[in-house]
Amino acid sequence: MSRKLLVVSLLGLITNTYSLGAAAWQAKEIQECPISKRNSVWLDCVPEDIPAKLPYKMQDGSVKVLETRGTVFCKQGICEYQYQRDSGLWDSTNEYAGQIQQAQKTPVVLLRGYYLGNAEDGRIVAYLKGTGPEAGGKAAPALQSVTSKSFNQASIDSCVDQWSNAFHKENGEDALIMADMLDEWETLCKAGKHP
Fold first, then answer.
1. Is 19 helix (H, G, I), strand (E, B) or coil?
2. Which of 31, 108, 152, 169 could form a cystine bridge with 72, CB 3.0-4.6 A?
3. Does the pLDDT at position 72 exceed 90?
4. DSSP labels for 121-168?
5. For 82-110, how does the pLDDT look when each residue is reduced to its tens digit (9 = 90+)?
């Protein structure tokens, strides 16, 4: 009997801990979706300060503590949640996650309770469900800082060449440069980082 009481007490403590985490983190109507720090091919719409799990009210009225991050793939502009099988392959959960203008396959880490869409300037953003264009609201405004910091493609290309030269100097002239390396270097160059 005391073991059951201990388990119930621990569950109560865990729920209270997640509730405190939820209270400390406030959902915004729009989340930006920058390039992921872990993988330059992915976008990551989840803020760094959010807890890994939060309590969510389910459709049946119950409350469950669930992962805050979900994996979404957008194919031909339609986005849906995916899960990874033990084999490493991805399968759809048949849960809609928004629409974007981009037609290529776009992998995104999305916050539970949000959907993907485009801002006025075409960038991909996450809208809190019940807000944004799919709920009859306005699209996120264009970023002012992007136009004021317009990147000169020639200087970015020059910077990528510097990264390429540094790579060959360290690994030999015959070392192969993969496409994802070029993408990563371009991202670094846009952030003002040089070798």
1. helix
2. 108
3. yes
4. TS-EEEEETTSSGGGT-PPPPPPHHHHHTPPPHHHHHHHHHHHHHHHH
5. 998 999 898 988 999 999 987 678 899 99
3-state secondary structure of 83: strand
CA 40 to chain centroid: 11
Per-residue model confidence (pLDDT) at position 71:
93
- CB 111, CB 50: distance < 8 Å: yes
Average pLDDT over all residues of the chain: 80
- Which of 92, 76, 96, 74 lies closest to 84 in space, CA to CA? 92
Report which DSSP code applies to 52. S
Partnered with residue 78 across adjacent β-strands are 75, 99
Greatest pairwise CA separation for the chain in angstroms: 72
Helix 179-190 / helix 153-171 crossing angle, nearest 10 deg:
130
Q: Cα dist. 180→19, 76, 119, 168, 186 in Å? A: 40, 21, 26, 16, 10
Angle at 101 between CA 153 and CA 105, to 5 degrees: 80
**Lowest mean pLDDT across 74-83, 84-93, 147-156, 170-179:** 147-156
Q: What is the pLDDT of residue 24?
A: 53
Closest by CA to 97, choosing from 122, 70, 120, 137, is 70
